[in-house]
Design brief:
Structural class: alpha/beta
Distance between the termini: 35 Å
CATH superfamily of the largest domain: Type I PLP-dependent aspartate aminotransferase-like (Major domain)
Number of domains: 2
Length: 339
C-alpha cells in the first residue's frame, strides 16, 4: 500500500496498487498469452482498441516498448522518423529505434508549448535522393511535459504528411490526461493516427504496461516485433487485470490530479524567488541554481520527494497524492524560503 507519510511528487509512475487492484489481479483468469489464450489480456486489448476506435491492440510491458515496436513496424532500417526534440521517442527511450532498428530519428525544435508547425514538418521531409534517409513516419505526443497538444493542429499535421505518403504515430504517454483536459474522447484525439500508444502505468495507476493500437494488419506485425524484443509474456493476465481496473476506475479521476496540481502551483507561485508553471498534472518550479540541492534536501526531510531534474524541477500529482499531501508540499517549500 502507498506510504501515506511520504508525498512523492517525482512522477506519476510511482503509484502503487490499492486493495481493489490487488483483488483484480488475484481473480484474473489467465492463460498463455503467447498462444493467445490469456482471457484477461484479450479482454484488455479489445477494450483498448474500442476505446481508441482502432481495429486491434497489443499489450506490452511498457510505453517505451510500445513506441519502439511502432517505430520498427512503420520504418525499415535507414528510414526516418520526424518528431519533436523534447518528445520521448527522441530523448527518453535510450535511442532504441536507432540502436535496435537502424531507424533515423530527426528531431525538430518544438515551440514553448511542445508543438510543431506544418511548415516545419513538411520542410523536413527529404527528397528522393540517395544521400538522404527516406522520411517515413511522423511521431507526435500528447501531452508534452503535461502540456495538452491541440488535437486539431495534430490532425492537420497528420493529414499533411499523409498526403506525402508518410505514416503517423501518437505517443499517448498521458493521452487520458489530454482527454480529460480537453473534454474530448481519447478516440477523437487518436483518430488521425495510424498507431497510438496508451500508457497504463502513469496517471492511470497500473504498475506495469502499455497498449499499442492500430489496424489489424499493423498489430499482427507488432506482435511479431514484440516477440523478437523478448516481450512475449505468458500468464500476463495478472498484469492486464491492473490495466483493466485502471481504465474502468482511474480515468475520470485524473481531473482530481489536475485540480491538485493547480492548487500546488497556486501555493508555490506566491513564494518570492520561485518561478512556477502548471500544465495538467505537472508543476514546474525554477529555484535559483544555488538553491536546488538544499531545497531538495529540505523538502525531503519533511517527507516530500521531488525529482532530480535540473531546473526547472518537475512536480507531478497522481492518485497517491491527496489534498493533505498538496498542503504539506506547499508548506515544505514555504519553510525553505522563510530561512
Amino acid at each position: 500500500m502507498p506510504d501515506t507519510q511520504t508525498v512523492d511528487l517525482r512522477s506519476d509512475t510511482v503509484t502503487r496498487p490499492g486493495d481493489a487492484m490487488y483483488d483484480a489481479m488475484r481473480s484474473a483468469p489467465v492463460g498463455d498469452d503467447v498462444y493467445g489464450e490469456d482471457e484477461t489480456v484479450n479482454r484488455l486489448e479489445r477494450i483498448a482498441a474500442a476505446l481508441l476506435d482502432k481495429e486491434a491492440a497489443l499489450f506490452t510491458s511498457s510505453a517505451t516498448q510500445a513506441n519502439l515496436i511502432a517505430m520498427l513496424v512503420h520504418n525499415a532500417r535507414g528510414e526516418e522518423v520526424l518528431c519533436g526534440d523534447c518528445y520521448h521517442v527522441f530523448v527518453a527511450e535510450a535511442g532504441g529505434a536507432s540502436t535496435l532498428g537502424g531507424v533515423v530519428v530527426h528531431p525538430l525544435p518544438t515551440a514553448e508549448d511542445g508543438s510543431l508547425t506544418r511548415e516545419q514538418v513538411l520542410g523536413a521531409i527529404k527528397e528522393d535522393d540517395p544521400h538522404h534517409p527516406i522520411t517515413r513516419t511522423l511521431s507526435l505526443e500528447n501531452t508534452v511535459s503535461g502540456r495538452v497538444q491541440d488535437p486539431a493542429r495534430q490532425r492537420d499535421l497528420v493529414d499533411a504528411v499523409r498526403e506525402q505518403g508518410l505514416r503517423s504515430h501518437l505517443d499517448g504517454a498521458r493521452l487520458m490526461n489530454a482527454a480529460i483536459a480537453t473534454g474530448l474522447s481519447a478516440a477523437d484525439i487518436a483518430a488521425p493516427f495510424d498507431s497510438v500508444m496508451l500508457c497504463l502505468s502513469k496517471g492511470l495507476g497500473s504498475p506495469v504496461g502499455a497498449l499499442l493500437c492500430g489496424s489489424a494488419a499493423f498489430i499482427e506485425r507488432a506482435r511479431r516485433q514484440r516477440k523478437q524484443l523478448g516481450g512475449g509474456m505468458r500468464q500476463a493476465g495478472v498484469l492486464a487485470a491492473c490495466g483493466l481496473y485502471a481504465l474502468e476506475h482511474n480515468v475520470e479521476r485524473l481531473a482530481d490530479d489536475h485540480a491538485r496540481a493547480a492548487r500546488l502551483a497556486a501555493g508555490l507561485v506566491a513564494i518570492d524567488g520561485l518561478a512556477v508553471r502548471h500544465a495538467t498534472n505537472m508543476v514546474f518550479v525554477e529555484p535559483a541554481a544555488d538553491d536546488v540541492a538544499a531545497l531538495r534536501e529540505h523538502v525531503e526531510a519533511r517527507g516530500v520527494l521531488i525529482g532530480t531534474q535540473k531546473p526547472p524541477l518537475r512536480l507531478v500529482t497522481h492518485l497517491d497524492v491527496d489534498d493533505d499531501g498538496i498542503e504539506r508540499a506547499i508548506d515544505a517549500f514555504r519553510s525553505f524560503y522563510r530561512h
